[in-house]
Design goal:
This protein has about 650 residues and is an alpha/beta fold. It is built from 24 helices and 16 strands. It has a 7-stranded mixed β-sheet with strand order 11-12-7-6-5-13-14, with helices on both faces. Strands 1-2-4-3 form a 4-stranded antiparallel β-sheet. A 3-stranded antiparallel β-sheet has the order 8-9-10, with helices on one face.
Amino acid sequence: MSFKKFIEQADEVIKFALEKLNLQGESYSLTEPAKEDFGDLSCNIAFLLIKKLEKSPYEIASMLIEQYIHNFDEKKRLESTPYVKSVVAHESGYINFKANFDLIGKEILNEILQNDFSYLDIGNGRKVIIEHTSVNPNKALHVGHLRNVAIGDTLYRLLKKTNHNVTVLNYVDDSGLQVADILVGFLYLKFPLIPEDKDLKFDTYCGNAIYVKVNELYEKDPSLVEKRKTLLKKLESGDAEISSFASEITLKVLNDQLKTCWRLKAHYDLLNFESHILNSDLWKNTFQKLRDQRIIKKETEGKNIGCWIFESVDEGIKIIVRSDNTATYIAKDIPYALLKIGTIQDPFKYKVFTNQWDDSNLWITTNDHLENDTHPIFFPAENSITVIDSRQTRLQKIIKEVLNKITEKSNEYLHLAYGPVLLSSRTANMLGINAENNNKSMQMSGRKGIYVDADYVLDTLHSKAKEEIIKRNPEITGADLEGTSEEIAISAMRYSLIKNDLEKEIKFDTIDSLSLEGNSGPYLQYAYARCCRLIEKSRIKSFDCNAINLSHDIEYHLIKHLSKFSIVIEDTIKNMEPKLIAQYAYDLATIFNLFYEKLPILKEKNADISNTRICLVEAIRLMLEMNLSLIGITPLERM
């Protein structure tokens, strides 16, 4: 928190000086200079006043500082701006500030060691909905889906830690074309309900064997396409026999999908089923609202005759309901979006589906009559975040455009887009996929069977991690070995999927993600384990820091970095950018490792300095622990 106070007080100095010169209201920026010799913050105000004051930047900077010094004696300056150690006008014209790191060091170490993170109350209990994962229940998750899971779950952890009231949704499209494809396989192509390979997960079986094969046969046998249309219509109309069979299949797939997500330590609060939306008043009332407000209209001629359409300003005509009265993908998303932001009444009842890995209840929507309908309040929220990859941006824009016509609350609905995941050629070859051109990116496709099963990648990471542990720590065996290998695999996967800019397409590489020396999850875990070993060897049980003993440049960098945590958290929440917290944790681990290599800690001859450095290590350990938890990584005491 302390570095933020330093920035605020530096800002006060500039504002005070401007006011004394009758220049209040002028805009400027405070930034960290590229060179440390220039201090900890630099202000550009002098350059922005050249035209008005007709003086050089250095003269203006000097005038402003003189106002501050002239009106505050040293005692008064220390009382009013204790976090500012010095202010100087640089010959270039910048006003440079140096921070009081004796004070900042003392405060930040005490905050961390006493577990005082009250400043993290950013949300103040604000209700937020996050929808993520939402994979069609017809196949196993592939590695691309895991980026959605990692982003969504990291945001959940960040928002929850900062005192937001968070509800996590997972939307189950159990009435769409993909489910109809699977039904075609079982009902008309007579695929067995139980795969011959007893070890094969049901979601993998449906995706790899049935879904791909059915889509191949559509081109050869057009009658299958007609059968799919019939099944889709029966699904959407709530045909009892077909709906019951579809529910049986999708629930089996969904259970296996959740096992993969839980393996990655993802948390959910509610599963929303699309069939419940279609067969409830939610869709009926939304359609009536769209029709009555003339947001959609029925085409009476042309190629879309009989269809209900929406005319988008940017995207042109979009079909909402087909001529056979089946709803399109976007049509089902509109009532769901309205439900999230509270523009339409919640028609559902709820029941517990299962207990999750973190011992929390996972609820589901239901249209059944319930004797006891006591449940958490899921809808509405003050903000709704939908995590979907950037290829769905056009559809999300149309949804937002429709919302703008219905409600003033449309700004509460946010589409958080991210770039798709590709595999590096090295990893593709390792997983048995032909990647002849190292520069060629391969788009995954469940329909064509071109994707890599998420569990397969996690299993590969687990095996690679296990090999490394056996080499480095042969004393780790049995369940401990398996557990540690799994945690490293999860760390490698989750971190690699959130450390990049959201909008960037990323290439996942198995070897890079497991590195203990690069920008990886295991690298952070290794830094944490190193902290634990130092604390254990020191045998110190209580930590009483005297930050004045920390005078080396590396120690200064560590204190400065620790003191910026609140700023990083605020920026992460404001920008919805999980990469910022990952970068903060990586930088902390990197500076700590430099500290470990360059300075004596346990072997320091001065006992006071040694004890203070151990206190600093404990603060770093606690901060790494918090950051790892926010990213969804388990801290390991040894690896």
